[in-house]
Amino acid sequence: NGLIADGTGLPAYRGDVGVAGGKIVSVGRSLAHANAARVIDAAGKVVSPGFIDPHTHYDAQLCFDPYLFPAIEHGVTSVVTGNCSLSLAPVRAPQREDFSAMFRLIEEMPKEAFDHGVDWRWGETFEGMVDSLSGNLALNVAPLVGHSVLRMFVLGDNARRAATPDELKKMCDLLRECLDAGAIGLSTSYIDVDPTLHPVPSRWAPHSELEALCAVLGERGRMLQVVHEFFDAGLTVSRIEMLGELSRRYNIPTTLSPLFHNNSNPNAVKQVLDAVEREWATGARVWPQVQTRPIDISWTLEE
């Protein structure tokens, strides 16, 4: 008797969902359930697949909250972490404070909260992080590996420059290790800054470096996530064209975040979506991620 919104785009309809062995086996109207071991009357409620949140920074929260509140309370059952070029691994031990300072800046997270919640028990590797956190989660987690942390890991404290050929090879090998350990792709950023207001390490990389990393993504059939210059429609269109070229050349899916309506430029969304359509028409896979809130919103429990 639930109002079923099945995710296909069809209008919601009242019906039944049959589950057996932990899997959905039937969806429809007036299903026979006389032999069911348990019947839940969902009258007055909406029944839908779990929501996927493709852009989160739950990375630190994973360490101390396996339910990822409040996401689970809103019907979110899958999250993507490691966005904006930052993931909790691979991070060398001496670089943890520099990394956490960048992460805390993006998340407006107090240092005390981060330090108390993230104990780095997995060491320095992406595989160690996945193994450490995956056994105690109530949600599905699809982690990206951050471009900035790859650069920090390989280039050390001097990441505000282009990588040498040897360093680029090491970055590509490190990316392969992360992908083989469970990363669904690579994230990079063109707008984020560190606490000194310098660009994050990924922004110092030449395009040739990103191409080399995308070639690795193509080997493994993984994706590229980009935080673009969303405040400018023209720059956004340029990034879409760049992603389209990378998608076609390396046969990878790409996504950019965020896309949102701006009252000061009401035609921007149409410009962006038209550019996306042009890339899809050429065989590229470029997915914009729509942001469903103002570009920046902050709140505190302090009086």
What's this model, at a glance?
This protein is α/β, with parallel strands linked by helices and 303 residues long. The chain has helices at residues 96-107, 111-117, 126-133, 147-155, 165-180, 207-220, 233-250, 268-281, and strands spanning 2-4, 13-20, 23-28, 46-47, 51-53, 76-81, 140-146, 185-189, 223-227, 254-259, 286-290. The longest helix has 18 residues, at 233-250.
Notable characteristics:
303 residues; alpha/beta; seven-stranded parallel sheet; globular
Helices and strands in order:
Layout: E1 2-4, E2 13-20, E3 23-28, E4 46-47, E5 51-53, E6 76-81, H1 96-107, H2 111-117, H3 126-133, E7 140-146, H4 147-155, H5 165-180, E8 185-189, H6 207-220, E9 223-227, H7 233-250, E10 254-259, H8 268-281, E11 286-290
Parallel strand pairs: 1-4, 5-6, 6-7, 7-8, 8-9, 9-10, 10-11
Antiparallel strand pairs: 1-2, 2-3
